[in-house]
Amino acid sequence: QVQLEESGGGLVQAGGSLRLSCAASGRFVSRYTMAWFRQAPGNEREFVAAMSASGGGTYYADSVKGRFTISRDNAKNTVYLQMSSLKPEDTAVYYCAVDSAIGYRGRRGSLYEYWGRGTQVTVSS
Question: Once rounded to an integer, what is the mean pLDDT over residues 32-59?
Answer without folding.
Answer: 94
